[in-house]
Amino acid sequence: MKKINYLILALVISIIVSMSGCTGPNGNNTTGNLSTSEVKANVFENKFVSFEVPNDDLRIEDKSNDTSLYIAFYDGDEYGGHIQGLGDNKYTDDAIDTLASSLGLEETTVAGYRALIDDTEYTKTLHVFPFDNAKNPQSQINIAFSTDFSSYYEKVKNSFVIKEFPTG
To answer: Domains along the chain?
Structure first.
């Protein structure tokens, strides 16, 4: 009888812990319907992307799910930036050319894909257009940081890898 009481107690504790919204290293969600993400040796990785973690004290919240990508960065309570997949927005090469020329955006390559740099006084933004020849037109992934977090932006940009294209 005593063994059963301990088993029930262990089961109750397990249920409470699993429902508590616990977070893993750097604030990554480890429960709920959000994506599984990991931080190993200063590299963040989820289903869609991976990149070097810019700062050990940086809190990363992965709110991605099976089809959409959204990762937020915080230094303490201060919001620093995000990575967001815009799978619903589709761009052809001509549309990207028009966007770049009409807004005067500089073109670069990130993670082996075409990207546009859209920096302002307050934000540093990259519009990355992951392209798979079998999936045309292209979707978009934005990497955006406050200019106060420029060094974080540079580290993410320079180590960014796209593993899978978000569709939502």
So the answer is: 25-162 (3.40.1000)
